[in-house]
């Protein structure tokens, strides 16, 4: 059995322009429809929003307003303009310091670039 490819760490605003592939995003849950298994995450810094298919991650542990991290595949349905992330993992990360998290990602990126390693991409 092949494991899914490692996702690139992205901000929601950058994930909107991604065509396909695995990604990891962090955002606030602003809407959740458990019947249709869809959720919407919003980037607290840019207010960009992203639609998430939660069919593999229901029931969600958290509520609207909670901070979530999602790992999944970006897809565009029927050639549409709006991407949908099919979540493989969706976890509540309330209490995480987003500024410190983003700073750590940037430092990790600089370290990998200095070593010519491209394991994680953060835009």
TrEMBL record:
One CC-aspect GO term: CST complex
GO molecular function annotation: single-stranded DNA binding; telomerase inhibitor activity; telomeric DNA binding
GO biological process, one term: negative regulation of telomere maintenance via telomerase
A Pfam short name: Ten1_2
Protein name: CST complex subunit TEN1
Lineage: Eukaryota, Metazoa, Spiralia, Lophotrochozoa, Mollusca
């Amino acid at each position: 059995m092949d494991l899914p490819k490692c996702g690139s760490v992205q901000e929601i605003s950058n994930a909107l322009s991604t065509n396909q592939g695995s990604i990891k995003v962090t955002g606030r849950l602003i809407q959740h429809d458990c019947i249709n298994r869809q959720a919407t995450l919003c980037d607290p810094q840019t207010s960009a929003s992203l639609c998430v298919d939660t069919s593999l991650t229901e029931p969600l542990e958290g509520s609207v307003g909670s901070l979530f991290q999602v790992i999944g595949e970006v897809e565009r349905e029927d050639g549409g303009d709006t991407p949908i992330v099919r979540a493989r993992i969706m976890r509540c990360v309330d209490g995480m310091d987003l500024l410190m998290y983003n700073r750590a990602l940037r430092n990790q990126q600089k370290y990998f670039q200095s070593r010519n390693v491209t394991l994680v991409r953060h835009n």
